[in-house]
Amino acid sequence: MVKTRSTLNSTALRRNKLSTAVAMGVLMVSGDSIAESRVIEEVVITATRRAQSVQDVPINISVVTGDTIRETGVSDLNDLIRLVPGLVTTDLGADAGVNNSLIMRGLNANNPGTNNVLPNVVEPSVSTYLNNSPVFLNLKLADISRVEVLRGPQGTLYGSGSVGGTVRFIFNEPDTQAASASVSAGVSSSSHGDDLNYEFDFVGNLPLSDTAAVRISAGYEEEAGVTDAINISVLDSSGNVVPAGGDAIGGGHTTTTKDDTDGSEVKYVRASVLWDATDNTELLLSVFHQENESDSDTYMRLTDGQTSGEEWENGRRFLTPSEFEADVVSLEVESDFGFATFSSSTTFTETSVTARNDISNLYESIDEATGGIAYFGSPRLAFLTEAEGVFEAVTQEFRLVSNGDNDWDWVAGVYYNDTESDLIVHDVDHSYEAWLASVPDVYYGLGTFLDVLNTFSDRTPPFTGAYYQDRTLDFEDKAVFGELTYHFSEDFQATVGFRKFWQEFDASQVVALPYCGFFCAPDGNLNGSTSEANSAKFDDQLFKFNASYYVNQDSMLYLTWSEGFRHGGANSFPTAGFAGVDPSFIVFDPDEATNVEVGIKGTFGGTTNYTLAVYQIDWENIQLDVFAGALGIPGVVNGDEAKSRGVELELNSQLTDNLRIDFGIGYTDAEITKDAGLLNFTDFAIARDGDPLPGVPDVQASINVDYDKPLENGSSLHFNVNGSYRSSAETNFNADFGNHVEVDGFDKWNASVTWQKDSFSIRAFVNNITDEAGLSGVQNGRAAYSHIGFIGRPRTVGIRLNYEFNE
Fold first, then answer.
1. Which end of the chain is least crowded, N or C, by CB within 10 Å?
2. In a domain, 333, yes or no
3. Looking at residue 240, which CATH number applies to its domain?
């Protein structure tokens, strides 16, 4: 037996102890000894399905501990980005729960910000997990143990969606040893807004016996609005736009203004029960519920149609409120069989979204493009998209992980997932029919325009308004997977992994254009509807190879060759009639990323951890969301090939007893490597060899500085400064595609000071010190008044109080 380096199995480190994720270790170095207080903390992770120090895992992993999350005031995913080098997203504010827009290692083909209302059909390129459950939520990051960020394809252990990487949110678990509780409350003020922000959080842990405990966390957060709407259409009691000047036929929109329109609130509760059923078996039942509500989106008005304009100002006709609700129930069972540990993870997830989006500009563009034929040149078109979606998933994974200090380590498992989503979309008319009814008899005695419309269309429910869509997607995924590691010596090991999967995807859809009636229906029906149903099946396998070698006691070299993928599927595009799409676009294939990575990680003098990695990822059959056909029906198509190359450096240093600095920087060169014609409504746009991948900055960096100062009365001060930087990025492949601009790079800085004495603390903070808008995505393809850019929260100054009780 040659393996002697530490690998912690479940018998050595129980999961309730893992919830702290931090163990202090004393590292011996040559020369003068280092004071124990200056030794950098050892962080234990479970990303490889076994407990290991992050420095012993031969891949590039970043870890943000729960302490860091609390000390920096991180509240959600948008805040977390600033602490993780190389992780990028479009800041959609309260709407961030609709779509996972995370980008790692440059693997992204979608235009950031194009679709901030409807859930994407394409699977995200970064998978996310709540503990061991594959779920995406823009969750409230409270009572969390750590966040593990695995860079690069992780297909063997984490399956579909782990193309750019995987992010795992690990929550604190119940503690059977002692009761504890904490209560915190905060108030803050954001520039450009008149009202205050509020937040409240509670965490309680209660042992029920020597073998059981319950833990509950709950909270509420309210953010005041900061965006002013300057062009809102005034509606009458019937919900129709009031004509300007009282002119029912030729009058445009009567408009008004409203300040601070984008307020939002978040409510959450999480409860978990831990039971040590036997000496070798434990069960963890968790229930998570979260509700997000937003009055409207946070925009800047793009006055030049590119990147310049009025920050925190919205020029659209309607406000865009949204509601998001999520429920996650999971049961994790772990049993130590001696030679191996058996784990079962069962998850039930249900999310629902209700959202609105101002789509008036699209109808104005259609009418203009058809010379006034489509909507008879109406001077005040006003349409609001109303979307309702429900998404349900059942996931089951069984794993067996070897125990013991042996030459061979292995992981084996089976996986099952069944996901169903239902989405209904209406484009609701707020002026057109009222205007038609007011136009006099000009159609040769046939009556008003509305009378004419009624002769060729039937707008009975559900086929009301200008557009109706009912889409159902079903996805089933079955897989077996495993990894096998052989330790040739204390210093050298090699791992091979595989995943075999079988998948089935079904899509059905009803689309209707009620105002177009029988003219737009393949079978001539009066509601202008088209129905389509399609399916696809796929099976394939993925592989992985990893080798690592300890150059000395403190430094490890590693090499990784790995694959990741996103599942294929079927579109429910109509193939005939006015909205018909070429049948060759019905099925879209899985895409696949192949990663080659070389890295070194280790420790300097026991006080500084470092990781340096160089990688190249070849991406084939890239998937991207499109709007297809004359109706712009959402779907997915395959592109061709792309490549991402980069360098990543991360340093974590305990410089003195009281001073710690975490720094990371990444360089990414991500581009198309083969011309591809991509469906864009009824046309094709060419993504050309050398075009950049959308939304990917070349450089992204972050820094976090902590300084502790003990005071004579037993209290202490904790100072924190953190900042992040991302360079400029293009929002689409080239100008042939919609919403294409080059957004400028920007940096954001935050600072705080916390006074603590015993169980009480007061934290004063300033977020976004320079009041940087941080433009990260645009919508600029239609009427000028509707051009918007997606930005973050402005400068926010506040205070937060916290009290902790420990038995």
1. N
2. no
3. 2.40.170.20
